[in-house]
Design brief:
The protein is α+β, with helices and mostly antiparallel strands and about 160 residues long. About 30% of the residues lie in helices and about 30% in strands. A seven-stranded mixed β-sheet has the order 2-1-5-4-3-8-9. Strands 6-7 form a two-stranded antiparallel ribbon. The radius of gyration is 14 Å and the shape is globular.
Length: about 160
């Protein structure tokens, strides 16, 4: 399955890093940056999370929530948040059900090996719960600034 710009963002329910079950629909009326990333504590994922951390107040000022999703456990998310002082929730999609819903669980290749994994992807969901923008196969450098600029221009 995959999602398209303009369509209703598929609702989901996942355990979050604060120990609570979170539903996407809980955020109706707010813009949401929903970013999927491969793995806690890895260089690219840490850089991306820290970029979102460093711009968190800017997003909050635009009435926009940041949610990160990976297949890591709630416990691992907790350690990641603590180590890097992340001010937003990370959601545990251990069975990659939400990643499948959003079309980001993909066949990947690394050093000639093929495996299934999370494709780094970001979605902006508007205040009505529709997919407003997507970035697939994200390159971390400058990405968060691009997302923030989009939210500033089109959703504020």
């Amino acid at each position: 399955m995959t999602v398209e710009i303009g369509q209703k963002a598929p609702d989901f329910e996942l355990m979050s890093s604060n120990g609570e079950t979170i539903k996407l629909s809980d955020y109706k009326g707010k813009a949401v940056v929903l970013y999927f990333y491969p793995k806690d504590m890895t260089p690219g994922c840490t850089a991306e999370a820290c970029d979102f951390r460093d711009t968190h107040e800017d997003f909050s000022g635009l009435d926009c929530v940041i949610l990160g999703i990976s297949t890591d456990s709630v416990e691992k998310h907790g350690k990641f948040i603590e180590k890097y002082n992340l001010p937003f929730l990370l959601l545990a999609d251990e069975e990659h059900q939400v990643a499948d819903m959003y079309g980001v669980w993909k066949l990947k290749k690394n050093f000639g090996k093929e495996y299934m994994g999370m494709e780094r992807t970001t979605f902006v969901i508007d205040k009505e719960g529709n997919i407003a923008k997507e970035w697939r196969k994200v390159k971390v450098k400058q990405h968060v600034e691009e997302v923030l600029e989009y939210v500033r221009e089109f959703l504020s």
